Every structure is written in structure tokens, then in C-alpha cells.
UniProtKB/TrEMBL annotation:
Family from the record: Belongs to the methylthiotransferase family. MiaB subfamily.
UniProt-annotated binding residues for [4Fe-4S] cluster 1: 15, 51, 85
Name of protein: tRNA-2-methylthio-N(6)-dimethylallyladenosine synthase
Pfam families registered for this protein in UniProt: Radical_SAM, TRAM, UPF0004
Length: 444
């Protein structure tokens, strides 16, 4: 086999889409005989799976390339590949080649399946290779059997995005939305369950619009109903939900299906109608608030999380106050908060009223302070409850303890045997912090 005796390391940036792509590349490489290693310094092949959603994400990749250049001087046989979203941007390949001429392979998001062959090409030809296909790219099925990595798995249901939110680069680098056929998704999940998986997270930039492009129309609610029927599966999660496409039918379906977890990640982005319109989000703050009320009415105790952007072009202090007001009204369990980062080629990058970095920073600080208070209060209200936790393994911050997540997606740390990893246990919550809860296994 081509990879016999060779090693690789993949460094992943960005969202779950990239995590899933990285897993797929690892499966392809292992099927070709390559062995994974933890330490980059020991790898014969290093792949950076990149993100370009904000400037900071790109800077991290250039920083990393600088670090691994020295491995190349020590080992001229080392193959360095840059894959992922960054490579898909117009002109990016040239930019990367200029800044890091020692990169051997540039691999677009639609070319992942060709990875083993392209590495061989690099090795044989001893020259850099660029494989970046624009547009949509095919929905590739029947790749080598995917390996389960523990009890949890990401399963992609749609690729790309049709929404063109004015700040966002994703539709440009991932192409238009393409849904996988339900039978392919179900087959993959059944195979994962056979390998011991009990929780799947269905992935798409907008899972709610799943199936619109398929010949036999299937809605996301239909898909959830089918996945719910897979024997042996215990939990179903899904990201990301677009508020505009969250129908009442879907709310009712989710409340009915026992395996679908009580958590929705529902990015709102901003609280001012004027900014929401400039962002091209397709809903008003009133519609968003109504959806939240509807979700909470149908699914009591549901965990709600969101994404928020501060400092969108033209955002006034009044607009920002409306974001703070919405956050206070909804009381999210948690929020990912970002400063607007202009992305070349998007509409928002060219809008008037770009705000200085200090204004963005100061707004971000105020927003985070408010959300942190809310997160803590929401967690404190749960102390004393007994909740079901899927054990993920030793905690990263305190390896003597275990960590896991509730159905509502709360992180819980508690003492216990590492052998419980991958199992569902009942935990009594004893202490609340902003980002997590502490507890102890409940035998009751
Ligand atoms: N499709 C998902 C959605 O609609 O929310 C996720 C998109 S993106 C991978 C994750 C988050 O990054 C977005 O929800 C948004 O808050 C943020 N984001 C995207 N583009 C951004 C930009 N140019 N500047 C700052 N934040 C951005
Ligand atoms: Fe980007 Fe909007 Fe698509 Fe999410 S829905 S990926 S924010 S364009
Ligand atoms: Fe995800 Fe970043 Fe690409 S957020 S889709 S990895 S640009």
C-alpha cells in the first residue's frame, strides 16, 4: 500500500464541517496504509485543514505554517498540505504559495477524496500540486468504511450554503447547498451504531433547509423521524438551525421524537432589525423572539445557544443596545460572540460605516459580560437536579475527573472511572460555573 510505513498528522481549524472533513481524510489515509501520529514533529505528512470565516482564523494558519517550516528543513521528505476553506478563496493558492513556498499540496474542499493519489503525485513528481475545484463539487458517497471514534459521531447531511448572509464567506468557499440522500445518511448512521456510536450530530450550515434540492422531496423533520427510528441510537443532535427556516412542523416533530436532544443552536447574529436586514438574515427580532417562545412552550427546559456578531458596518450604539436587549430577553444558555471581520468578496466588506477595532472590542466586552452573567444564573438554577450525561472521557482541564454533556448540551465535570467513557450516566449537579457544571454520579 502507498502509505505503508508512513505517518501523518492533521491539524484542524474551524467548524464541525472541517472536523468531519479531517476525519474523512484520516480514514482515506489509513485505508491507504498511513499511520496517524499525535506529534507533528514525528509526521511524514502534515495537513492543515483550514478555516477562513474570520481574519483571525487565517492568521493562525500562517502562524502554524511558520512553525512547521523548520520540520521541513530537518526532513526534506516531509510533505506539507494545506486543505480546507482557506484554499477555496480566489487568489488564495497564490498567496499561500508566496508566503509559504515549502507547501507541497493545496487541496480544496471538493477534492478531499483525491488525497492519497495527490500525495503520491507530490512524492513522485517532486513538485508542488494544486487541486482546487471551484463551484459545488460532487456529493461523494461510498468512500472507504468510516471508522467510529468513540460513542459520538458527526454525520454530514448537507454541504454548502445558499443563504449568502452578507458578512459570510462560507457560500463562496463551500458552494451551493447539496443534500445527501436520506438512504445514504441512514446507512452511515446504522454502520456507526454497529461500531458502538450512540449519539450522532447531523451537520449542515442550515440543517432546516435539508432536502429541498432532492428529487424526492424530504424535509429535515422527515429525516429526523427516520434517524429516530435507528435501533441502538440513543441521542440525536443537529447544527446549525437557521431561524428563518425553523417551521412549527419542525418544532412539533422535535418535541415528539424521544432521541432528539433538547438543545437548539439558533444563531441570531444581531438584535436590531436594521442590522438583521443588512445582514440578509431573513427574519426580524420579533419573529426570532416568537420562535424562542414557541420552542420553550413545546420543549420545556430546552437549551438555547446562539452566535452573535458585534460591529457590523454601520452598527450604531442604539443597534447594539437592541442586541443587548434581545440577549437579556432570551436568556441564552451560552453564546459564541464575534467581532465583525471583513471578508474579501462578501457584500459587507464593501459596506460604508466600517467600525474601528476599539469600538468592536468594547462592544464585545459588554456583550460577553452580560452573557456570562446569564450563563452562570442559568447553570445555578440547575444545581440539585439529576441529569443524563454522555461521558466523553477524562476532562481536559482536570484529567482526574470525567467530562460529558447533558441532553441540553451543558458540559458537566464529575469524579468517576474512565471506563465509563461512551456510556450514559445520571449525574447530580452540585456546583455551577459560567461554562460548566460540577456534579457526582447519582446511584438513585
Ligand atoms: N451556518 C451557520 C450559521 O448560519 O450560523 C454557521 C456559520 S459560521 C461557520 C459560524 C458563525 O461565524 C456565524 O454564525 C457568525 O456568527 C460568525 N461569522 C461568520 N462570518 C463572520 C464574519 N465575517 N465576521 C465575524 N463573524 C462571522
Ligand atoms: Fe454563512 Fe449565513 Fe450560510 Fe451560515 S447561513 S453559513 S452565516 S451564509
Ligand atoms: Fe467552517 Fe471555517 Fe469553512 S467556519 S465552513 S471551516 S470557513
Amino acid at each position: 500500500m502507498a502509505g505503508q510505513g508512513k505517518t501523518f498528522k492533521i491539524v484542524t481549524y474551524g467548524c464541525q464541517m472541517n472536523q468531519r472533513d479531517s476525519e474523512m481524510m484520516a480514514d482515506l489515509l489509513q485505508a491507504a496504509g498511513y499511520e496517524p501520529v499525535d506529534d507533528e514533529a514525528e509526521a511524514g505528512l502534515i495537513i492543515l485543514d483550514t478555516c477562513c470565516v474570520r481574519e483571525k482564523a487565517e492568521n493562525k494558519v500562517y502562524g502554524k505554517l511558520g512553525q512547521i517550516e523548520k520540520f521541513k528543513s530537518a526532513n526534506p521528505d516531509l510533505v506539507i498540505a494545506v486543505a480546507g476553506c482557506m484554499v477555496q478563496q480566489p487568489g488564495a493558492a497564490e498567496r499561500i504559495r508566496q508566503q509559504a513556498p515549502y507547501v507541497d499540496l493545496l487541496l480544496g474542499t471538493h477534492n478531499l477524496a483525491e488525497l492519497p493519489r495527490l500525495i503520491e503525485e507530490v512524492r513522485k513528481m517532486r513538485r508542488p500540486v494544486v487541486a482546487v475545484q471551484g463551484g459545488e463539487g460532487p456529493v461523494v458517497e461510498n468512500l472507504p468504511r468510516r471508522r467510529a471514534r468513540g460513542a459520538q459521531a458527526f454525520v454530514t447531511i448537507t454541504y454548502g450554503c445558499n443563504n449568502f448572509c452578507t458578512y459570510c464567506i462560507v457560500p463562496y468557499v463551500r458552494g451551493r447547498e447539496r443534500s445527501r440522500r436520506p438512504e445514504d445518511i441512514l446507512k452511515e448512521i446504522e454502520d456507526l451504531v454497529d461500531q458502538g456510536v450512540i449519539e450522532v450530530t447531523l451537520l449542515g450550515q442550515n440543517v432546516n433547509s435539508y432536502g429541498r434540492d432532492l428529487e424526492n422531496k424530504v424535509t429535515f423533520a422527515d429525516l429526523l423521524t427516520m434517524v429516530n427510528a435507528v435501533a441502538g441510537l440513543k441521542r440525536i443532535r443537529y447544527v446549525t438551525s437557521h431561524p428563518r427556516d425553523f417551521t412549527t412542523e419542525l418544532v412539533e416533530t422535535i418535541s415528539r421524537l424521544e432521541k432528539v436532544c433538547e438543545h437548539v443552536h439558533l444563531p441570531v447574529q444581531a438584535g436590531s432589525n436594521r442590522i438583521l436586514e443588512l445582514m440578509h438574515r431573513g427574519y426580524t427580532r420579533e419573529q426570532y423572539l416568537e420562535l424562542v417562545t414557541n420552542l420553550r412552550r413545546h420543549i420545556p427546559g430546552i437549551g438555547l445557544t446562539t452566535d452573535l456578531i458585534v460591529g457590523f458596518p454601520g452598527e450604531t450604539e442604539e443597534d447594539f443596545q437592541e442586541t443587548l436587549d434581545l440577549v437579556a430577553k432570551v436568556e441564552f444558555d451560552n453564546a459564541f460572540t464575534f467581532m465583525f471581520s471583513p471578508r474579501k468578496g462578501t457584500v459587507a466588506a464593501g459596506l460604508p460605516g466600517q467600525l474601528p477595532q476599539e469600538v468592536k472590542k468594547e462592544r464585545l466586552k459588554r456583550l460577553m459580560e452580560l452573557q456570562n452573567k446569564i450563563s452562570l444564573a442559568k447553570n445555578e438554577a440547575l444545581v440539585g437536579e439529576v441529569v443524563e450525561v454522555l461521558v466523553e472521557g477524562p476532562s481536559k482541564t482536570d484529567p482526574s475527573k470525567l467530562s460529558g454533556r447533558t441532553r441540553t448540551n451543558k458540559l458537566v465535570i464529575f469524579p468517576g472511572d474512565a471506563e465509563l467513557t461512551g456510556r450514559l450516566v445520571n449525574v447530580r449537579l452540585t456546583k455551577a460555573q459560567t461554562w460548566l457544571l460540577k456534579g457526582e454520579i447519582s446511584r438513585a
